Amino acid sequence: MNWNSRLSWLFVVSFLSAMVSGCGGGGVSGTVPVSGKVSYKGQPVAGAIVTFNGEGAESRTAVAVSEADGTYKLRTLESEGALPGKYKVTVIKTEAAESAALSMEDAAKQAGKPAAEAKELLPPKYASGAETPLQFEVKSGAANTFDLPLED
Question: Which of 31, 35, 46, 80 is 20 to 30 A from residue 60's alpha carbon, by CA?
Answer without folding.
Answer: 46
